[in-house]
Amino acid sequence: MALFSSSDIGIDLGTSSILVYVKGKGLHLKEPSVVAISTIDNTPIAYGEEARRMVGRTPDYIKAIKPLKHGVISNITLTEKMLKHYIEEAIGKVSLRKPRVVICVPAMCTEIEKKAVEDAAYTAGARTVDIIEEPLAAALGADIDVDKPEGNMIVDIGGGTTDIAVIALGGIVCANSIKIAGDDFDQAIIDYLKNQHHLLVGDRTAEQIKISLGRAIPLADNEKPITMAVKGRSTQNGYPGEKLIGDDDIYFVFKEPVEEILRGIKKVFELTPPELAADIFDKGIYLTGGGSQIYGMDQAIKNEIGVECLRVDDPLRAVILGIQKRIMMSERQEENS
């Protein structure tokens, strides 16, 4: 019998989004990692996009919560309920067999944090749980041959963490996980608008600004700023307000978090064996995750590190595609054993 049955599930449990792959069905869902609860009895009333739409728009007795922060579980109870909800949605509430679950964690996740993820998956209904580190999953999803005795560097800029790892012979040689990622870019925008323009905006507006105006390199001499009218609430009079901002403003807003990511990459290079560093110089650095789509992020890394930086074909789904491959590989190994 194959190790993985048709009900087996792969989960990219991210700080910002949760992606679920079901064997035989493909990518089953992608939803924000948000749970809306009633503060009266602490019971969940909505998950994912439905809960996300409630952020900043709910009455006092409804609270929208992200149960993961910086890539780790901050609310174990809500994480368990969120996983249970999506597992049941993937295979149905009535199932003859509990699913096997492959789930990813950040590169530098502690054993305690891994155990929390594992326990949450078991409580949510998993029969067995296989933990895979996020950079390794991203490398598999980017079609990198990780089993060769050659160095490959992955920089995965997610929602809560940026995972940087050098991979060779099917494992992580050295890694660094920094708690600076997509959510921090959003927060930097919120702080900038509040402090410089006296305008309060929410997470959703900040994310829209990041997507539309985010940039990691300065404007060239021949470039004109791209502008966007941003609406929010004035901190001066409490009324609705609007400000015009440009991508040149956002470059300076993003300067500090980008530099943190660059320092994280440098730290991994300091730990990398010379032979593997030479491989990376020849092949380049692979860039995955939603943060990799910020304009000029690849160029900013190249300018600082001096190594080509390659954004993979499907950066947003690289991790879940790698989890899918992990399931298929495990199945083949079991069939051959």
Describe the protein:
This protein has 337 residues and is α+β, with helices and mostly antiparallel strands. The chain folds into three domains: 9-138 and 317-336, ATPase, nucleotide binding domain (Nucleotidyltransferase, domain 5); 144-180 and 254-311, Nucleotidyltransferase, domain 5; 182-253, ATPase, substrate binding domain, subdomain 4 (Actin, Chain A, domain 4, Alpha-Beta Complex). The protein is built from ten helices and 18 strands. It has helices spanning 48-52, 76-91, 111-123, 134-141, 182-197, 203-213, 247-271, 274-283, 297-305, 318-336; strands at 9-13, 17-22, 26-32, 35-38, 44-47, 62-65, 68-69, 72-73, 100-105, 128-133, 152-157, 162-168, 171-178, 199-200, 227-234, 240-246, 285-288, 309-311. The strands form five sheets. A five-stranded mixed beta sheet has the order 3-2-1-9-10, with helices on both faces. The chain has a five-stranded mixed beta sheet with strand order 13-12-11-17-18, with helices on both faces. Helix 5 crosses helix 6 and helix 5 (182-197) packs antiparallel against helix 7 (247-271). The termini are close together. The model is unreliable at 1-6 (pLDDT under 50).
**Whole-number radius of gyration?**
21 Å
- Kindly, what is the distance between the CA atoms of the first and last residues, rounded to a whole number of angstroms? 11 Å
- Main sheet: strand order: 3-2-1-9-10
The mean pLDDT is 89
Order of helices and strands: EEEEEHEEEHEHEHEEEHEHEEHHEHEH
The main sheet comes to: 5 strands, mixed
The CATH class of the largest domain: Alpha Beta
The CATH architecture category of the largest domain equals 2-Layer Sandwich
CATH T-level topology of the largest domain:
Nucleotidyltransferase, domain 5
Helicity, in percent? 25-40%
Proportion in β-strands: 25-35%
Would you count the extended β strands for me?
18
Give the low-confidence spans: 1-6
The CATH H-level superfamily of the largest domain is ATPase, nucleotide binding domain
What best-fitting shape do the alpha-carbon axes yield? Answer: flat
Structural class: alpha+beta
Number of H- or I-type helical stretches: 10
Number of domains: 3
